[in-house]
Amino acid sequence: MKRREAGGLAGAAEGHTASRQAAAGGRPRGTARGHEALAGYLFISPWIVGFLVFVAGTMVYSLVISFSHYNLATGDLRPAGTANYEQLLADPRVATSLGNTLFYAVLAVPVEICFALMLALLLHANRRGTGFFRTVYYLPRMTPLVATASMFLLLLNGNTGAINQALRLVGIEGPQWLVDPTWVKPSIVLMTLWAVSGTMVIFLAALQTVPRELYEVAELDGAGPVRKFFSITLPMISGAMFFNVIVLTIAAFQVFDQAYLLFWRDQSNTAPEASLFYAVYLFQQAFRQFDFGFAAAMAWLLFVILLVLTTIQAKIATRHVYYEGAR
Amino acid sequence: MKTKILLTGFAVLFLYPLAWLIAASLKPSGQVFDNALIPRTVQWRNYVQVWQELPLVSWLVNSVAIALLAAAAVSVSSSLVAFGFAYFRFPGRTFLFGLVLATMMLPASITMIPTYLIWKQLGVLGTWVPLFGANLFGSAFYIFLQRQFFLGLPRELFEAARIDGAGYWKMFWRIAMPLSIPSFVIVFLFEFQASWNNFQGALIYLNSEGVEDFTAPLGIAYAMTKYSPTAGGQGDYQYVMVASLLVPCPCWSCSASANAISSKAPPPNPPSPADTISASPLFALIMKLVS
Predict the structure, then answer these.
(1) What range defines the domain where residue B9 resides?
(2) Which of these, A107, A300, B121, B170, could form a disulfide with B166 (CB 3.0-4.6 Å)?
(3) Which chain A residues touch B91 with a CB distance below 8 Å?
(4) pTM of the model
């Protein structure tokens, strides 16, 4: 890939500039260069405008809003000092929702990683007919979350749901998934596991890059399957592992659709407090209470938390990730 | 053999909810909750009735229109930007491309409120504009994909075009674009799907409009409440099931065609779904952080 880049288009631009100069009959070198640069800026200008408005602009604006009170009637922003941030500390539901989200992330990320890795290993070990299984496993991933939620709302029902009915067959009385506060997060994890194949596909792609010779050499040395997994497979796919952990962590901290659809859909909320996730509370504050200042402050707190977490994960990874070409 | 058995077991687990959904969509209202995979009474009428019970036609039309606009906008603008990054050399190119990748890390909640206020200022709340407008300016993931593709095109093509007197625009529009159709279509299909599934966006921008103006995901959420037996609804949940089965169909066909394209006509850097994810800009960015 790298070699291609060098010889491909990037080179073409150079050649183009050179021949262009020749064609222009010894026009000063700077003009052609300037021409090319200008054209380049023109081509990327949609993104530059979008970045200035929808990324840089909104980030600054969001910071300003977080230090203001928003008046819904007039649409004015009134300076509020640090009032919104003080309210973050004072509001017990911020702590509750943050706790719920943290708990969910700690539960969901390892479970998803293990399940996805197991499926990928199974698919990789299978020689023929993998295409069929891959399609079947990928189907849930391609299903809109709303459709998934409308199904799981019934499947997870404590009394009539198919999941508890199946558990009853083996003599287990299943929990009230959607009512019992202890089982709220596991039910969302269960729903997420059904669509885990996005993570699985990345593991599968990584597994396919592990050179077979490594296993052959290890076998000659008498390594068993467990030893091979921990000494070869796991280190060789550590890049994909790291990627998945980060992506799933970020997703877990922003979990919204599932929680909203299963618990907070109707306004007459009898939803258990255990299902109040950070993104749900933020959404409610922003678009139900229209307390934009407070919601923006919440968003910045989340941003800082994610930034710290990702940095820590990156630090850990520097020591443990093997990345082809990096070393 | 053991792996085959395990794989089949998991396949059954993954397919069970879908089989259950198909069965539930055919049951009369009293039997939706009985979990039988073969309905005791098959009621084909559900598939006719649902169109009268719910404004499903409007929802589908809205969703299709928004998804087409979103996909068209993002695939054209991202290609344009990607060509700029792939072909031209200009001061700050590496830095700017790094910035493109970095935007992937930004949590959506940071920009959600200001973006809402921007659309409010422009007076387009309640229209489709907020649901595709930002796509006119390209999107990091797709810019990355298209750039990778353009970088793989042979330089001779462009030199030949230049000798024929083609300008930069012609090179993009007449050479780069036609050649990149496979990856262009994949970008289009990816975004079509993403837009089709977008629930939170519709919830923010269309929820206060009439039911007719909803998109398909928002409509299903509405139907879930309307027919949910627990929320004092009418309990005709089979209509929700029919809708939940119809709405994913475009997604399933999108992913099937994306798969077919990437496996049948391998472009210079074939972006199969697996590769595109592991070669995603976020991945590249993370690896940069690590090394």
Answers:
(1) 1-43
(2) B170
(3) 37
(4) 0.86
Q: Transcribe A199-227 into DSSP letters.
A: HHHHHHHHHTTS-HHHHHHHHHTT--HHH
291 residues of chain B, pLDDT tens digit each: 788 899 999 999 999 999 999 999 999 888 888 888 888 889 899 999 999 989 999 999 999 999 999 999 999 999 999 999 999 999 999 899 989 988 888 888 999 999 999 999 999 999 999 999 999 999 998 998 899 889 888 888 888 888 888 889 999 998 999 998 888 988 898 899 999 999 999 999 998 888 999 999 999 999 988 887 665 555 788 899 999 999 998 888 887 887 777 665 444 343 343 444 444 455 555 444 444
Taking an 8 Å cut-off on Cβ atoms, the answer to whether A155 and B17 are in contact is: yes
User: In whole angstroms, what is the distance from residue A34 CA to residue A45 CA?
Assistant: 16
Question: Is B199 in Cβ contact with A145 (below 8 Å)?
Answer: yes
Q: Which of residues 73-112 of B touch A (CB under 8 A)?
A: 77, 80-81, 83-91, 93, 96, 99-100, 103, 105-112
Domain A86-320 coded CATH 1.10.580.10: no
SS3 B247: coil
Q: Do A44 and B113 touch (CB under 8 A)?
A: no
Residues B56 and B39 reside in one and the same domain: no
Number of domains in chain B: 2
In whole angstroms, what is the distance from residue A319 CA to residue A314 CA? 9
DSSP B174: I
Per the CB < 8 Å rule, is A51 touching B162? no
Same-domain status, B198 and B57: yes
